[in-house]
UniProtKB/TrEMBL annotation:
Organism: Candidatus Nitrospira nitrificans
Pathways per UniProt: Amino-acid biosynthesis; L-asparagine biosynthesis; L-asparagine from L-aspartate (L-Gln route): step 1/1
Top-level division of the source organism's lineage: Bacteria
A cellular component annotation (GO) from this entry: cytosol
Pfam family, one: GATase_7
Residues at the active site: 2
One of the GO biological process terms: asparagine biosynthetic process
Protein name as it appears in the record: asparagine synthase (glutamine-hydrolyzing)
Gene: asnB
Length: 619
């Protein structure tokens, strides 16, 4: 895991280009604290800051050239099947100087060109410069785990970097994309399948896309991968056992692949199904390899004293089952107040909930313990229907399919559960996800047209809802937040549930392997029977990285909220400021509605973010 940057140019001196790339790398040094490198050639300058994870020697130094010196690569990520690819390439006559996946990736491009993407299994964002043709080729992994941003200055300069902040200096002026800002404030939605970012003029290479840039030809961009979720509702009884067994085998295989590393690997453990599943399967894999004692895994968890948010009994049940070494951090509103500006500087886009801050604290804890790689459970909810909204989509699809009896049984099974109702109330502040908060409709300026969920491509069926969240909305936001949270401390985050081979298989599952008889994530629960502790496997409540946000906003963050919204400089283009003040006064008067509290939080976060990114940064 690293930071990358580059500039393809004409009409600019090589010295100026080199200095610009060095500044870009300097602004991303947190991503790669173990070293840096630069390439300066005819018409292009590349930079790289390295986090050493595989092949810690100088043989993995970047930017890296092929043996002939024609191609130069700067690369961020991990190719998990690099050993198998390396063997295939050796059989084709390639010889390698070291053991890095970077060298294998570059050789794969030399052998197969753009088609090399079809063979890569992992997370990646990279650019390869062809000295002979003056063409830059770049690609981003299928689900967008690793970031790639770029900006174009007419037809003279093309700049790219891992992080958006590295490109700000290339903008003649910094302004917000008001359309995206409005959608964020209304629904906490950002469409990551689109190329636009919150800062006008800076683009992102969408997940599963590749591109080329060449003088005279400009930009060529294309999608090389996509997935669609099955619309089937039911599984034939004779297939269920086979699918459950296959799930376990496939999950064990992808977790084992994600353990490939030359440095210690830890696990994020929230106490939920997904992170617990990873921790338990990691434990089994380490035992299979003969690892024991102090070399077993370390887990990292955020906990709170609030009993409604305390997950320690679930975490401890996993720790007892695996004998892992647990580490805990207790985020507070006071510490968030200290961190909030720096946290937003790392996040680079407004964050709709303080829950992502808990993950930031976990990453800091892991770094303090000397861990450079963390496994996490992102992506399971969006594929195995872990959120309440998916239950509603499933029941709605049953009704549309005239499966009335099953729809009634499932409604009773799901909503007759007091635990699900309790956690649904707890998450009331998130109801804006698929319908804007009414108070925002009253605040927003009519000059900005808000898109409705149907316009945003969110369908009514379970498969369409899962697909939209997997590739456009929910998961891409979480992956971006996780990348920035972990890379802020020089930590590589790996997400086994988002392995594209596993994703493609999960996409074929009928709905009843995800939701059935009052249970979410059915195939995970059934497939890991005997591996997951029953206390976790049978739980129906769901929290994840929740924080006491409402209490924080009334306590340690109260003055920050009021001060930020008292005289905002950047919200005026989006909302009626007098309306914001009325909302603040209602809140101070004891307004109980979580949705309004969260709207105020998003408004304040947006303003705080804009003060850093829409005016000169001094860090």
């Amino acid at each position: 895991m690293c930071g990358i940057a580059g500039l393809v140019y004409q009409g600019v001196s090589p010295q100026s280009a080199e200095l610009a790339v060095r500044r870009m790398i300097s602004s991303q040094r947190h991503r790669g604290p173990d070293g840096e490198g630069f390439y300066d050639g005819n018409g292009a300058s590349l930079g790289h800051c390295r986090l050493s994870v595989i092949d810690l020697t100088e043989a993995g130094h970047q930017p890296m050239a092929d043996r002939e010196g024609r191609y130069w690569i700067t690369y961020n990520g991990e190719i998990y099947n690099y050993l198998e690819l390396g063997t295939e390439l050796r059989n084709l006559g390639f010889r390698f100087k070291g053991r890095s996946d970077t060298e294998v990736l570059l050789a794969a491009y030399c052998q197969w060109g753009e088609k090399c993407l079809d063979r890569l299994r992992g997370m990646f964002a990279f650019a390869i410069w062809d000295e002979r043709t003056g063409c830059l080729f770049a690609a981003r992994d299928r689900l967008g785990i690793k970031p790639f941003h770029y900006c174009v200055d007419e037809d003279t300069k093309f700049a790219f970097a891992s992080e958006l902040k590295a490109l700000l200096e290339f903008l003649p002026q910094r302004s917000a994309n008001l359309q995206l800002a409005t959608e964020f404030l209304a629904w906490n939605l950002l469409d990551h399948e689109a190329a636009d970012t919150m800062v006008t003029g800076i683009k992102r290479l969408p997940p599963g896309h590749a591109m080329t840039w060449q003088k005279g030809a400009g930009l060529r961009l294309w999608r090389y991968w996509q997935v669609s979720i099955s619309e089937d509702l039911e599984t034939a009884p004779e297939r269920k056992t086979k699918l459950i067994d296959e799930f376990r085998l496939r999950f064990e295989e992808t977790v084992a692949l994600h353990l490939r590393s030359d440095v210690p690997v830890g696990t994020c453990l929230s106490g939920g199904l997904d992170s617990s599943a990873i921790a338990c399967v990691v434990n089994a894999e380490l035992h299979r390899r003969g690892v024991s004692g102090e070399n077993l895994q370390h887990t990292f968890s955020a906990c709170f004293d609030d009993p409604r948010l305390d997950e320690r009994r679930y975490i401890e049940s996993v720790a007892t089952a695996t004998c892992c070494k647990t580490h805990f951090v207790f985020p507070t509103g006071e510490r968030m107040l200290e961190d909030i500006d720096r946290w937003l500087w790392h996040q680079e886009e407004p964050v709709g909930s303080s829950s992502a801050y808990a993950q930031y604290c976990v990453a800091r804890l892991a770094r303090e313990q000397g861990v450079k790689v963390l496994l996490d459970g992102q992506g399971a909810d969006e594929q195995l229907a872990g959120y309440r909204k998916y239950i509603l989509a499933y029941i709605g699809q049953l009704l549309k399919s005239r499966r009335f009896g099953l729809a009634i049984r499932e409604t009773i099974a799901f909503f007759g559960s007091p635990e699900i109702l309790r956690t649904s109330r707890l998450a009331d502040g998130r109801r804006y996800l698929f319908g804007s908060v009414p108070e925002f409709d009253q605040l927003r300026h009519n000059k900005v047209q808000m898109l409705r969920p149907a316009t945003l491509g969110i369908g009514n069926s379970l498969g369409r809802r899962l697909g939209a969240d997997l590739t456009r909305y929910s998961l891409p936001i979480l992956l971006r937040q996780e990348d920035r949270n972990t890379m802020a401390f020089g930590i590589e985050s790996r997400v086994p549930f988002v392995d594209h081979i596993f994703v493609e298989w999960l996409a074929t599952l009928p709905a009843d392997m995800r939701l059935s008889a009052g249970w979410t994530k059915c195939i995970l629960r059934d497939g890991l029977a005997g591996v997951l502790p029953d206390l976790v496997r049978h739980r129906k409540s769901k929290l994840g990285f929740e924080t006491p946000e409402t209490a924080w906003l009334k306590g340690p963050l109260a003055d920050w909220l009021r001060d930020t919204l008292h005289a905002p400089r950047f919200l005026a283009d989006l909302v009626d400021l007098e309306g914001v003040r009325r909302l603040l006064n209602q809140r101070d008067g004891g307004d109980p509605f979580l949705s309004r509290q969260n709207l105020l939080f998003r408004l304040a976060i947006y303003e705080s973010w804009a003060r850093q990114f829409l005016q000169p940064i001094s860090k």
